[in-house]
Structure formats: structure tokens, C-alpha cells
Amino acid sequence: MGFRTAEEVTLPTRFLTTTAHFIAVVTILFDVRMLASQILLAGSSDTDLLAADDLMQLTKQLSSVAYAAIACFAVEYVGLFLGVSIFMHGHSCLYIVLHFVGAILTGLMYTNAWSAGALIAFVLVCNCIPAALELLTFLFVARVSYFSY
């Protein structure tokens, strides 16, 4: 019985929070038409029928944002499994915090039918920033390892 190293804590936590956030985004993707209709109903003050064009436009917007988030998850999972940023404690802690917040906010957005702009903001902050950081870390590690030989 001793103290755990940082990798023994941050690596599983990072994987679990990323996977929980991924599941929240996939849930939105699987139920995108119902979510779009709930968002349109919550935003309308009258009881008229929803326009099919508005519903299709919002469905396409939500789907494209969810697919962009999945692409960011793919970048992060590849970087995680290749071991690019496993031993960078600051990166791992940032990923853990952003994916925890992203999973909570995505779940709240889904249950409370917030506007599509909220999902766009969540994806930009909680998905694009970690994916860009993972790509930059990969480029840095590849450059340093190239010049070390």
C-alpha cells in the first residue's frame, strides 16, 4: 500500500471522462430529430405546427456539430492510444476537466432542450480545444523524436 503515481489516476480518469462525454454526444446524434423538434417547440410562443424546413435545417445543424465532435473524439482517442500525451499531466488534467464539464453540459442541453448555439459552444470549448491540443502535442512529439536521432 503506497501512494499512487499520477499516471495511475489520470489515465483511467481521462479515458472514462472522455468516454462519458462521447456517449453524451452519440446520444444526441441518435435522437437528433426529436431533440430538434423539442428545441423548436421550446423556442416558439405560438402553437402552430412546426415548419418542416426549420426542423430539417436544425436537424442538419445538430447532426453536423455532433459529427464534428465525434471527429474530435477520434483525434483524442488516437492520441491517447498512441501514448502521445499520456505522461503530460497538465494536458491530462485539462482533458479531464473539459470532458467532465462537456458531458454534464451536453446532458443538460439534451434534457432541457437548449438552443443549438449552446451545443456549438460546448463542442468548440470541450471538444475542439482538446483535439487541437492533442494534434499540437503530436506534432511536437514527432518533431522532437525526429530531431533526437
Automatic annotation (TrEMBL):
It is a multi-pass membrane protein. Keywords: Cilium biogenesis/degradation, Membrane, Transmembrane, Transmembrane helix. Pfam families: TMEM107. Its main location: membrane. The chain crosses the membrane at residues 21-44, 64-87, 94-113, 119-142. It is found in: Membrane. PANTHER family: TRANSMEMBRANE PROTEIN 107 (PTHR34341). This is Transmembrane protein 107. It comes from Tetradesmus obliquus (Green alga).
